[in-house]
Backbone:
């Protein structure tokens, strides 16, 4: 069977500063990228411990790049592209590694929703959502369950809010926006591998997240006024005030998650 791992850099053990994530400079973010690869490899090991013939694709979902492809073992590296939105139905399950909580979450290290610099919140059908629910719901609409989240403790709580049955692997305890108590690298990898094994063993027990169904009413609010050039990229968006826009649609692909 085929599995998909979605990754981000902010949830990896040892990463708790935006100086480690917002940059293109691998001198600053390189150690975090190395740790994220170790955590991904641990997840792949857990998957294959239960399904030795598993094919695993790994999406690098971090905006400035969060993985060195050559560090990955037993899986295929994919750089995030909106083209993948129409291919998710081929996978048996989705797993998250290195995930952070949504913007505005109390004591959640490096929490944000897609852009840590511009987005104050996303809300879908009157529910605040972050990156986890946005993509997990798309996979769920295509029949694909989300079975594991590895990341900080606040991200794990967020995942359980949307998918109560999900397995989690907590790599650090959030103490603030740029503060956390981290597990040692080896320990983080151990609990991720064990979490992936549990998730695979419970594959039939964890339902797809499909909480959000059409019609969709999406609202986004930014920290700063929205410029006309940004709004022009979303012709179906309606400006509510200078910092807020709304989209009403029956097509999930028209929402700004991809």
Residues:
């Amino acid at each position: 069977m085929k599995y998909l791992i979605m990754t981000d850099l902010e949830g990896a053990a040892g990463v708790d500063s935006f100086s480690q994530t917002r940059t293109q400079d691998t001198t600053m973010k390189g150690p975090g990228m190395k740790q994220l690869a170790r955590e991904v490899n641990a997840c792949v090991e857990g998957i294959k411990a239960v399904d030795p013939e598993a094919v695993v694709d790994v999406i690098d979902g971090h905006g400035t790049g969060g993985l060195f492809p050559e560090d990955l073992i037993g899986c295929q590296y994919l750089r995030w592209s909106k083209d993948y939105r129409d291919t998710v139905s081929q996978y048996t399950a989705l797993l998250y590694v290195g995930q952070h909580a949504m913007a505005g979450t109390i004591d959640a290290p490096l929490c944000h929703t897609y852009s840590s610099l511009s987005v104050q919140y996303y809300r879908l059908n009157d529910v605040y959502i972050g990156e986890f629910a946005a993509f997990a719901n798309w996979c769920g609409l295509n029949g694909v369950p989300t079975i594991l989240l590895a990341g900080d403790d606040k991200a794990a709580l967020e995942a359980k809010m949307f998918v109560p049955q999900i397995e989690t692997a907590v790599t650090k305890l959030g103490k603030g926006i740029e503060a956390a108590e981290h597990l040692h690298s080896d320990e983080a990898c151990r609990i991720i591998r064990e979490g992936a094994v549990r998730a695979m063993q419970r594959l039939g027990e964890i339902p797809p997240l499909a909480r959000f169904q059409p019609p969709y009413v999406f609202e986004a609010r930014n920290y700063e006024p929205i410029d006309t050039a940004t709004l022009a990229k979303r012709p179906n968006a309606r400006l509510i005030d200078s910092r807020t826009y709304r989209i009403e649609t029956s097509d999930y692909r028209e929402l700004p998650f991809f």
Observations:
- The chain has a mean pLDDT of 95.
